Known about the structure:
This protein has about 550 residues and is an alpha/beta fold. It is built from 17 helices and 15 strands. α1 (about 1-30) packs antiparallel against α2 (about 40-50) and α10 packs parallel to α14. It starts with a helix and ends with a helix.
Amino acid sequence: MGNTTNNTRAQESTNAIERLYITMRHLFNRGFYKPTGVSGESLKNALLQLRPEIYGSIAEEKAELSGLIYVLERLPKGIEQCRFINLTSDEGYSKSHFVPIVPPKRRRNCYRIDDEQMNIEITRGRSDIYDILTHLTFLFIESEKICKRVLIEDTDRTIRDWSKLEEAVNKDELSLAEREVAVIHTANILGRSFIEIMEVHEQFATEEQPDRFLEIVYWLGKLAIEEEITGNKRAITFSSLLRERLGHHIHGERWADTIKETLRKNGLLHRPIHIISANMHSVMNTLFAKNALKKEFSGKESLKIYEALSSSLNEELRAKVTVVAKKNGMIAIDDFSGTNIDVQLFDTAKMSADACGYTLPKGIKEEEKPVIFVMDYAFGEQAYETIDELLKPYKEPGKEPVFLNVASISVMGKAGILEGGKGDLMIPSAHIFEGTADNYPFKNELCADDFKGHGLKVFEGTMVTVLGTSLQNKDVLEFFHQSTWNVVGLEMEGVHYQKAIQSASKIRKSIQDNVKVRYAYYASDNPLETGSTLASGGLGTTGVKPTYLITEKILEQIFNS
């Protein structure tokens, strides 16, 4: 009987996810919607039925604080004050007087047009739209909770707690006593304890805005109250240029053309290329940090060096490694295409033995020495757009197309794990696409045995690519984990990378059909464990060991291939 109930819940959650995606695509094609309109209510109802783990107590009357922190780290500062939110393509705002607002945990340019409007640039495909709309729906649900708690039924009057919060927010500066009084009133409004609100208040506080959390709560409630009393509705719009350009790989093509042109200018176009999707520090540090910093870390193990380099306090150490890397064949390509994906090229022919920690086999010809191509993490469907464009031949006007000699493609990333905890490893044997029948089995050059003996748990099996980490629900994940799908984790890019690789190698024949692929992920969270979701905070130094362990294994294979 228990299994039947669980399956039913999993099916209900799956239906809710499908409804969310279908509604989002419909709204995008339509061009606008109002959060309190029929379509907006449909999104809210589906999200409330799904009750994603990351949004905790979203379906309860009390405010969801961890989810609020998670969402506001991924949306532009001040969005809670905006009645109008416009999703746009790259339409030239960077050349205007507007200063871009970049959320701390998402690389996207946002522009505050006026007191009431925020424009958010979408240059990373549909995944970005799903991500933003899901977070906005969460915010609208929370703002309605505040409205219901403070607006006296069948009147346009508010409770005393709200008046006191409004007084506090309108003051230029609060004393400690005034702040604590305001927090008490805010705790009553949100249905949370004083101590809980104080903790969140401290997390949001900045030097410029010491009482930012009080302002966020006030504006979330204010717009919902005004909507209820005056009928001035909030609205989400999608610009006509965005709707016209989406899916046409405009940014990916621009990004790939810049890279191929850089390869040509540096005489690297015909050399064996090893692509690595990773962060912008682990490959460079693994190649050069040990020798570059031998004075500072004499006799210390590599992990201590990597932990030091990961600290924001050690800018000088990082700069020293970068200088050594550039002297030994590293070319940095900063992104101006709109993809927000920076690139590093490492020419192994220019790496001196006393600088680099790895050596190539003896006797290898100069033109056969590999080029290591490191690209920053792509976001969801953007992975397909960028790799698909990159693997196409290089075309110079009036000349024959040049096919890239891609020897291997390696993907290292963070993922949610379904067994184990933060920092543990997942080695996929296939990617399956959530909500579809699409599946992508492949031969992974990495295996669990490569990572044993390092004090980390290693899980080998299928990975599920989801359309948004913020929509994950326990019942669906338990079904994937316990069924014959043998899913060990979930991420957002795997299917998209593999789809591009398979079409280029097996169908278009633009790269060799025996291209080697390597996938390895480390756990950022376990969404099946309460208190271990992404909303529970970052990895800190826990992520350093698995990041560099995976990087070392990838580089060992490249240098020994």
